[in-house]
Amino acid sequence: MTQNPIPTKEQILAWLSDHPEAGAKRDIAKAFGLKGTAKIELKRLLKEMAAEGTVARRRRSYHDSGALPPVTVLEILAPDAQGDLWARPVEWEGEAPQIAVLTRREDPALGAGDRVLARLSQVTEGYEARIIRKIGVARHRIVGIFRKGAEGGRITPIDKGDMKEWIVPAGATAEAKDGELVEAEQSGPKGRMGLPRARIIERLGDPAAPRAVSLIAIHQHGIPDDFPDEVIAEADAERPAGLGDREDLTDLPFITIDPADARDRDDACFVQPDDDAANAGGHILWVAIADVAHYVRPGSALDREARNRGNSTYFPDRVVPMLPDRLSGDLCSLHEHVPRAVLAVRMKISEDGRKIAHRFTRGMIRSVASLEYAQVQAAHEGQPDAKTAPLVAEIIAPIYACYAALARARAIRQPLDLDLPERQIVINEAGKVASVKFKDRLDAHRLIEEFMVLANVAAAEELERLHRPLLYRVHEEPSADKIESLREVAQASGFTLAKGQVLKTAHLNRLLSQAEGSEFDELINISTLRSMTQAYYAPQNLGHFGLALRSYAHFTSPIRRYSDLIVHRALIAGHGWGKDGLSREDVETLEETAQHISETERRSMAAERDTTDRYLAAYLSDRVGAEFTGRISGVQKFGAFVKLDETGADGLIPIRAVGREFFHYDRDAQQLIGADTGLVIGIGQRVLVRLAEAIPVTGGLELELLELEGASLPGGGKGGRKPFKLARKFSALKAKQRATARKVKRTRK
């Protein structure tokens, strides 16, 4: 193959001048078609040019030493005698060019020493800079309802945690109509009445329109939901991967098991009895995962966009995918009877459920069936349908036999065994909530979870064996303060949580077992969940507390999680399976990538939670005035939160609406205590409430307290149902418990 000639210094300089935004060595090498040893020569040439001063190196990029990149960081200088504002580039050696700062009304106030990100344009005597944002201060964006006024208007935020309005000056309304949903950003200092100014940057339409709920969350949380043209073009240009050097696994009868409404199928499994006499009663478990790395290569537009999104975000009515549908729904989806490229792991499982060996391979499979959880469960229980009947003996039965072995090992390992039902919001064709129900937890769900956990463990252990960098899924043990709070809740409920020893998930499982079947079952499960730290990604291995595992990585969902794609690339590089493995830049930015995708995961969780709240509020808005039972799930100074039994929705009882007395807030005990009656409102208490208000646009539910632990409030309360004797007795008992606990604590100190 003919090697392209090394460019001259003049050619490099000309290219850098024409492409100021792309000055990395790999960009230059790609532009001139350089590979292999030619890239080494290019590196030497660039170093020589930097030493001569003809190019300037800033971080990992080279630029024309006489030119600044179009977007750069500037330091603001003191105004000159005429009051004009000037700046200098932060990363610059030698005499800095003149940069005049052009300010607009909506720009933040700037003073000498401030740093800004600015867009530059060359003029005769230097540069002009327009402010993008002040460094460390992102422009605050809001999604809200526009209310037209005589001079502009106002925006009422839809975020239920943000009650202040924003002023929109005339000329900044983008011709929005009254009552329209809009996205806006802060545009300068506060205006009259101390309200912040905003300018509308996008009109989102009617907030009451069907399916507007998830659209609100997407915009409010800044989730990218529109793929750039170049990303779509790359995805559309891809073709199915061929067998090539892959291991041919198409003769193995893999199946996929997914929800009925699955939008992608990125994992398949197959189990057969182990015929090795040394592993009598054991199993061979295969887990195959879509080979996304073959299509999403490091440095590509697809890769940049996938990393930017971090993960897919799932709403009841739509998905914001990490990858375009050409990949997520087609080339990377393990459809039945279609050859698909995979990374697969073959695991040898002992009779008692221990993984005693594993082997990874880059292969090709052909799934024999795409099945649903309930369909597989029914077949296992003796009610197969036409599709599953031929699969029961040879495919489904071995899967359940392997799961039974893994369940025995799980019982010994004792990962955290929370029992929190998963809520499902069903949306009809008109985009409105048809029903709210709780999903059944079947063994078919549990076995796939166990198979995936084991494959994730194998991936982490394999990369450790290969001494390759990777992203771990980290879940640290809870803090001492949170465990102490959980212990107090347990004691108040009549249970015990071991103290004075290293905390293990087994201790928490004993507590959950004590509460199982009691009236405090849900309370203890929720309180235990709240005591946990949030899982995150990191290149350092700090273990996974909740799963009780030493090494754990995400390997099984590369269609919807960027973390898994990084693990796939690490395996490809570690085994030498191709040139699409973990790149040098991937390795150098591993810490940054871990932090970024941990943040995008939290962003998606918040958006999904807000959307659920809004759909539930819309669903319940026709039932204002109806009565519901529930349990107090949280207490704050301003009121108590209640989780309703019927839907699992959370509503607020404002403390201002409870009786006519002052309530003291005990943060440690998580209680509100009436100053006159001694009424105690605390976590876990059963309540009867009336729905006073449901606001779909914010997701807020306001409740009116009718009964507490089966008794009406002092003075008859709102409901006036039963005498208050029981409630007073309960309050006195709780107050006595609280006083005793404090006395014991003081004695111990």
From TrEMBL:
One of its GO terms (cellular component) is cytosol. The gene is rnr. Residues 625-706 form the S1 motif domain. GO terms for molecular function: exoribonuclease II activity; RNA binding. One of its GO terms (biological process) is mRNA catabolic process. Transmembrane segments: none annotated. Belongs to the RNR ribonuclease family. RNase R subfamily. 3'-5' exoribonuclease that releases 5'-nucleoside monophosphates and is involved in maturation of structured RNAs. PANTHER family: DIS3-LIKE EXONUCLEASE 2, RIBONUCLEASE. It is found in: Cytoplasm. Keywords: Cytoplasm, Exonuclease, Hydrolase, Nuclease, RNA-binding. SMART domains: RNB (SM00955), S1 (SM00316). NCBIfam families: 3_prime_RNase (TIGR00358), RNase_R (TIGR02063). PROSITE patterns: RIBONUCLEASE_II (PS01175), S1 (PS50126). InterPro entries: CSD2 (IPR040476), NA-bd_OB-fold (IPR012340), RNase_II/R (IPR001900), RNase_II/R_CS (IPR022966), RNase_II/RNase_R (IPR004476), RNase_R (IPR011805), RNR_Ribonuclease (IPR050180), S1_domain (IPR003029). It comes from Rhodobacter maris. Gene3D superfamilies: Nucleic acid-binding proteins. Pfam families: CSD2 (PF17876), RNB (PF00773), S1 (PF00575). It is an enzyme of class 3 (hydrolase). It catalyses: Exonucleolytic cleavage in the 3'- to 5'-direction to yield nucleoside 5'-phosphates. Its EC number is 3.1.13.1. This is Ribonuclease R.
